[in-house]
Structure formats: C-alpha cells, structure tokens
Design a protein that fits this description.
With 284 residues, the chain is mainly β. It has 2 helices and 17 strands. Helices cover 4% and strands 47% of the residues.
C-alpha cells in the first residue's frame, strides 16, 4: 500500500493526539470535577518555538460581538504564510457562513445546522493549501457525539471520498479519529486528573483535514476535549507517522487551559488568552 510522506501530515502542535490503551484504564479513572459554566470565551491561541520557518510567533484570534457570537477568525492554520486565513462569520436561520474578510463575495465555508445548533453539513471552497472544494455530512451517535463524517473532495489534481470515524471515552473526549483515505488513525490520550477547556484536536496543514482544523479553530466543530491531552501519535497500517507528548500544563481554578508545552521534533510553547467579560442576560 502506498504510504503518504511524513511531511504530508505536518502539524504545528495543536494536533493534540495519542493512542490511549484501554486495557485496565477504565477501572483506574477517577471522576473529574464538572467544568463550571461561565461566560469566558477563548480569544487568542498562539505558539512559539515551533519549526515554523521565518514566521516567528503565530496562532489565531477570535473576535466576538457584544452578545458573545463569534464574528471573525484570523490566523495561520499551517506553516506557510500563504495559508493565512481572515474570515468574518455571518449567521442566518440554520446557516453559518465563513466569508473572506478581504473579498466579501468569497465564501470559504457554508455550514448547515439542525435542532440545538447541531452541525449537519458544510460545503467548502478553500483557496490555499493547493485549493479544493469539499462537501461533508455529519452522522451522530444516540448520545449526541459525532459518529462519522462523510466527505467528498475535489481539486484540480484529485477527486476522492473519505469517511472520518470517531471513538470516545466515558467523558466524551475523542479517543481516536480514523480516516478511510490513507487509513490514517489519530489517537488521543488524556490526563484525567486535569479537566480543561480550550484545547483542540487538530492543526493540520494539508487538505485532508484543513476544513476540520478551521472549524475547530473557530469553535464550530461539534466535539471538544474536556481534559488536558497529554500524548500524540498517528499511524497508517502500522506505520508510525508521529509521536508527540504534552506537559507543563497551566490550568486555572475554573479549568481554563492557559498554557502547555509540546515535545516532538522540537519543544514548543503554547499559550491561550481568554475574554471573560460578562454579558447581560438579554444579550446571552
């Protein structure tokens, strides 16, 4: 079987993943305290020390309106400065649009939601990372977690279908996502003594999952980690593609993740900034 080059799945560190060995682990888990509801919203995520040639400190920023709705996302989803995104987010009925800030007629993604704001499908027309179009549909488990995502991707050089399947632990943290294309499995290992909000799963630089990365950067993906994620691996047909570890977590008393370190090919530092301004009951 043809294996994709390792460079094809470069990550900038917020691909926080790992294979959790389930044998015996369930019995040793201690119940984690509930994460309290609050009005804090993740405003900025940035990193330093990664192997990002010539870009220095980078990351992404979320901008909210007075009622707390996300209205802009800007940042770098990949290593290349050509991959810079700057989009405004517009809402109407059961639709959400991610529109280029530079060209108001250019819609990068259009999302369709159902009852309770559940993401049902999206279409994408991405002009960086080689450029491609994509259609995707979501299927859910009975408990509301994403079971799988069906994708159809078309570019100037390739056309394919892909299915991303998900598995979860008892806290609804994603344990793995398995792509049918290239049979790549991304796993996720957690420190269950550290409940945390603010981290996310992927930061891919290639078209395989760049749309998933954008949704996670914008906080629009219908899944999120509930604990600090401590280890990362990826493999295809038994062939290892990455092995990363995460430590030195700083988490505040309300379980907001503030910073952590990544160790793999290089040691990187990651910091998160929060906007905790209160909103009036009428604007929530």
């Amino acid at each position: 079987m043809h294996k994709p080059p390792i460079a094809f799945i470069r990550l900038t560190g917020a691909c926080i993943a790992g294979i959790l060995l389930l044998s015996g682990c369930l019995r040793r888990w201690e119940p984690a305290p509930d994460i309290p509801a609050n009005t804090c919203r993740l405003q900025r995520y940035f990193f330093t020390g990664d192997d990002v040639s010539g870009l220095g400190n980078t990351g992404y920023t979320r901008t909210y309106n007075s009622s707390g709705k996300l209205i802009r996302l800007s940042g770098l989803p990949g290593h290349s400065s050509n991959d810079t995104i700057d989009v405004r987010i517009a809402y109407g009925g059961n639709k959400t649009w991610l529109i280029s800030q530079a060209n108001t007629t250019d819609t990068l993604m259009k999302l369709t939601t159902g009852a309770g704001g559940r993401l049902l499908s999206y279409t994408a027309d991405i002009h960086f990372s080689g450029g491609f179009t994509e259609r995707a549909q979501y299927q859910y488990n009975s408990n509301g977690t994403v079971k799988q995502i069906f994708r159809q991707v078309q570019s100037s050089s390739v056309s394919y279908q892909d299915t991303i399947r998900f598995g979860y632990d008892s806290y609804q943290n994603v344990l793995y996502r398995q792509t049918s294309r290239y049979d790549i499995r991304y796993g996720y290992a957690y420190d269950y003594s550290k409940p945390a909000t603010g981290s996310y799963y992927t930061y891919f630089t290639f078209p395989e999952l760049i749309t998933q990365t954008i949704l996670e950067m914008a906080g629009l993906a219908p899944y999120q980690p509930h604990h600090a994620i401590s280890n990362a691996t990826a493999a295809t047909s038994g062939y290892p593609l990455m092995n990363l570890s995460f430590d030195n977590f700083h988490i505040d008393s309300s379980h907001k993740l503030l910073s952590y370190n990544l160790e793999g090919r290089a040691t990187s530092g990651y910091s998160l900034q929060w906007n905790c301004q209160q909103t009036s009951p009428a604007s929530k």
